[in-house]
Each structure stands twice: as C-alpha cells, then as structure tokens.
Amino acid sequence: MKTSDRIFRFTGWHYRDGLCRVRTFVNWKKQAVVVLITDLGNLNPSGSVVQLIEVIVKELIAKLVIPKESIIVQHLEPYGFYSDHRLQPSNVR
Fold this sequence. Notes:
By secondary structure, the protein is an alpha+beta fold. It has one helix and five strands, in the order E-E-E-H-E-E. The chain has a five-stranded mixed β-sheet. The longest helix is centred in the middle third of the chain and has 14 residues, at 49-62. It is globular and about 40 Å long. It starts with a strand and ends in an 8-residue tail after the last strand.
C-alpha cells in the first residue's frame, strides 16, 4: 500500500540542492517499508539519484521521512530501470 508520494529536496553538488521523487510503500504482511526513489531527469538541478543515492537515503532517514530499515529501490523513469539497494544500517549514519 502506498503511504506517501513526495518531491524531496536533498543536498546536491556545487551548492545546488537536488530534487527527486520519493514514494513510500508498506507491506503489512512482511512488516517492511519499501522506498522508491525516482530521478527527475532534467527537472533535477543537481547530481543524479544514481550518483547521490547514499546522500539521499541518509537525509531521508535523518529527517525521519523513512525508517532506517527501509528497502531502497532506485528508479530511473525514462529507462524503466530499477536497482534494489539494501543499505546495511552500519553503512548509513
């Protein structure tokens, strides 16, 4: 079930904040939160989601937008590409 769908501003490169789309889903049966992070292409004024995924996830956790145990999925919309990033809690500070 989708619980939220938002545009998220993150710390980008060269003093320019970036923008990405963040959709949060809850799988109640598996007790899991799945976060789909989509690159906005030309609408993002900074580095891509692919290059800054760790920064984005750290900021989402720090701002209490997502729980630390979330399953992170990168989505590059024009290409229909998905990449499942299961960041270990020890890697995210």
